Amino acid sequence: MSDLSTHLSTGNPAQQARALRTALEDANYRYYVLDDPSIPDADYDRLLRALEALEAAHPELATPDSPTRHVGARPASGFSEVRHAIPMLSLTDAFVDADPPAGVDANHEARDFVRRVEQALGTRNPEFSVEPKFDGLAMSLRYERGVLVQGATRGDGTVGEDVTANVRTIKAIPLKLRGAGWPDVLEVRGEVFMPKAGFAAWNARMLREGGKLLANPRNGAAGSLRQLDARVTAQRPLAFYAYGVYLPPDPDAVIADRHSAAMARLRGWGFPVCPENQIVRGIDGCLGFFRKIGAERDALPYGIDGVVYKVDRYDQQRALGFVARAPRWAIAHKFPAEEQTTVVEAIDVQIGRTGAATPVARLRPVQVAGVTVTNATLHNADQVARLDVRVGDSVIVRRAGDVIPEIVRVIPERRPANARPWAMPAECPVCGSSIERTEGEAVARCSGGLVCAAQRREAIRHFASRRAMDIDGLGERYIEDLIAFEHVHSLADLYHLTVDDFLAMKRRAEERDGAVPETVKAGRIATKWAENLVAAIDASKATTLERFLFALGIPEVGEATAKTLARHFGSLERIQRADAAALSGVKDVGAIMAAHITAFFAEPRNREAIAALRAAGVHWAEAAPQRTAEGPLAGQTVVLTGALTSLTRDAAKARLEALGAKVAGSVSRKTSFVVAGEAAGSKLEKAMALGVEVRSEAQLLELLAAHGG
Ligand code: D41
Questions:
Q1: What is the per-residue pLDDT for 2?
Q2: What superfamily would CATH give domain 339-414?
Q3: Where in the sequence of the chain do the CATH 2.40.50.140 domains occur?
Q4: Other beta carbons less than 10 A from residue 316's beta carbon
Q5: Which residues face 187 on adjacent strands?
Q6: Alpha-carbon distance 91 to 328, whole Å?
Q7: Ligand 1 centroid from CA 304, angstroms
Q8: 95: helix, coil or strand?
Q9: CATH fold label, 3-69
Q10: How far, in Å, from the CA of 295 to the mean position of ligand 1?
Q11: CATH number belonging to the domain at 471-539, selected among 1.10.150, 3.30.200, 1.10.287, 2.30.30
Q12: For ligand 1, atom 11, which residue shows the shortest CA distance?
């Protein structure tokens, strides 16, 4: 902070203004270009306000390149046209062929591009600069004697719109160049975009304040730049990456002998350049980058719709030249579309473990992002009503990363005349019990409980699963067959299964699936298998209260809650006796969860099931109640997602819990932060959508180290 006070108080006003500007420019450079912030945001704001005050008191000190200009100028009456000194070219697309002819690879368009380049240059495996293709708005920035004088949209490539006032508000764009050696006139081309986190935060704020939501980050960027009042643009979280440079008026003048070296010089002058950019050789290098970025796509902080391959050497670019308005030396290799249209053939209801009735759209099979999609979840009846999806509708389906396919919207023009609105059936399609919906809850549930075969199957499957009772070797397939052939009707039945039961089940399953000849050897192997299973079931009887609680499958009670309840109450009897008020007093247990827990234990069939399990020998050590979590991270809820590289997920969980943090399986508004490992998917998306803080594996390790964990 001594630095800050020095800027504020030393020298005459002109010297003070210069010192403040330098400090602010350095802070912007460290933040946006080096991705290595040097001062806290609060200090930055203080410096900025000091400079604003100084410029207001001494208008003669204000300059067009002052960092205070990042906050926006007065409204303009419209945008004037700008003729680009050097035309802005377009990029040819190469698509992934979802259905290539026999013997042809899906990436044949990209291969053809590289082959043409190699033929024209007479070289094999030339060097390519490869870059993500940002989904934003192309921009041309003109600098004269190192000062930003104009920002223009691409328009038709020849004439664009003058959006200088808006561009000045983007802090990632330097108003003044750093360093030395830049030419008198410089045009930098790049993409203005809205990072995913900024988009999510913006929409979260709009939801709170009742403002207008942005449809997606791309529209967010385009709409923000089209604001007539730059003060509005200044509020929007926009960013910029440079991807091209020209020295007007000569289209062939260069600042280096190759594209990558030119980008490195731009970086030194203060322009953000994407850190993912790489140099590769030939088609194998290009496709390697395409696959790498494709795998990292969901975890990248900005939206991309493909990658761009550019011949790196400028002499080779010149030799290749142009076709129409597009360079022959570059191509955009686009990711397969994440959205497709198809038809809803039926809407079924699936019954889950807790009876939750989930509508599922059965779709005419369609390829989306390289995978055949036949089902899309509709979540609940409200979602069906919101979308107004009907059987027979044409719909747009979306599949992003490893996320479950979803219906984005209906195409109303293609609705058949006889399509009727969908309603949740009154009766369970599996057991015929009534489907009921509690006030204030989005889900409807089959009231059949364990009478319902679907709920029974899911409940037993859940009970035996690894994170619950962990019955080794008793996979889903066997459980289905045990239920189908009526060896198991209840949870406790699992503990009465004999070797003969398993052998009988196996025989019937083999008959059903087409008989396998019975040999003496196969018979011995089968007996050993059945003995192992019976032993595994026996071993699972010794468990813990938290596992048992989780295994019971109480609605809303996940692993983390089961653990909290077990710790808090110490015994099953105390949990059973707790009323809704006592339960709601437990950390992270809300009113709805408390109601589910009391309702579960109030149900005689559930109490009988528990008694039967204990009678069969299921047991655990009970403990004294432990009312509060302790440790430096007490009260924090953390979600781990994606692959961690330096430690296993279980190890990370154990270390966090040792420090008092709770590790939960799903993201909610109550999540303190999400740790995103490699290829993090839907949980990361959800965190960003909810505005929950996201930390990297490196930050997690720092946190653990800081607390000696
Ligand atoms: O990320 C992008 N959207 C991107 C766009 C990129 N990384 N590189 C690009 N390179 C060019 C050339 C090769 C013509 C300088 C581009 C674009 N053009 C472009 N964006 C919109 C139209 C053209």
A1: 42
A2: Nucleic acid-binding proteins (2.40.50.140)
A3: 339-414
A4: 17
A5: 142, 246
A6: 9
A7: 12
A8: coil
A9: Helix Hairpins (1.10.287)
A10: 22
A11: 1.10.150
A12: 91
Q: How far is residue 676 from each of residues 296, 505, 658, 673, 687, measured CA to CA in Å?
A: 12, 43, 20, 10, 10
Q: Which two tokens stand for residue 638?
A: 């953390």
- Eight-class DSSP state of 277: -
**E-assigned strands of 145-196?**
147-153, 159-161, 185-193
286-334 tens-digit pLDDT: 999 999 999 999 899 999 999 999 999 999 999 999 988 899 999 999 9
Q: Which residues are CB-contacts of 390 (< 8 A; sequence separation ≥ 6)?
A: 344, 410, 415, 419, 420, 421, 422
Asked if 153 and 139 touch (Cβ cutoff 8 Å), the reply is yes
Q: How far is CA 106 from CA 128, 158, 333, 426, in A?
A: 21, 34, 12, 47
User: In whole angstroms, how far apart are CA 706 and each of 14, 284, 647, 701, 702?
Assistant: 43, 43, 17, 8, 6
**Are the C-beta atoms of 204 and 690 separated by less than 8 Å?**
yes
User: What tens digit of pLDDT does each residue of 192-236 get?
Assistant: 999 999 999 998 888 888 888 887 888 889 989 988 899 888 999
Residue given tokens 């000194």 in the structure block: 85
193 CA distance to ligand 1 middle (Å): 13
Architecture of domain 93-334: 2-Layer Sandwich (3.30)
Q: So what's the pLDDT on residue 153?
A: 95
Is pLDDT above 90 for 69?
Answer: no
3-state secondary structure of 576: helix
Share of the chain above pLDDT 70, in %: 96
Centroid of chain to Cα 251: 41
- Residue 308 and residue 289: Cα distance in Å, rounded? 10
User: Is residue 1 pLDDT above 50, yes or no?
Assistant: no
Q: Is the pLDDT of residue 542 over 70?
A: yes
Q: Which position has the token pair 């309603």?
A: 423
Tokens 């935060």 belong to 201
What's the whole-number average pLDDT of the chain? 90
Tell me how far the alpha carbon of residue 239 lies from the centroid of ligand 1, in angstroms.
16
Rounded CA gap, 461 and 628, in Å? 32
Between the two ends of the chain, the Cα-to-Cα distance in Å is: 31
Q: Which atom of ligand 1 is nearest to the CA of 304?
A: 1
pLDDT for 137 beyond 90: yes
Q: Which neighbouring-strand residues pair with 308?
A: 131, 332
Q: How many residues does the chain have?
A: 709
All CATH 3.30.470.30 domain ranges in the chain, comma separated: 93-334
Of all protein residues, the one whose alpha carbon is nearest to atom 5 of ligand 1 is 133
Start-end ranges of CATH 1.10.287.610 in the chain?
A: 3-69
Contact 581, 595 (CB under 8 A): no
Residues within a 6 A CB radius of ligand 1: 89-91, 131, 133-134, 138, 154, 189, 191, 243-244, 308, 310, 327, 330
Q: Tokens at residue 191, please?
A: 């993409």
Alpha carbon nearest to ligand 1 atom 2, residue: 133
pLDDT tier at 33, thresholds 50, 70, 90: confident
Catalytic site residue 521? no
3-class DSSP state of 221: helix
**Atom number of ligand 1 nearest to Cα 241:** 1
Pocket test for ligand 1, best of 225, 243, 254, 286 (most atoms within 8 A of CB): 243
Decide if pLDDT at 50 tops 80.
Answer: yes
What CATH code is assigned to 637-706?
Answer: 3.40.50.10190
Rounded to 10°, the helix 520-539/499-512 angle is 130
Which residue reads 């110490």 in tokens?
570
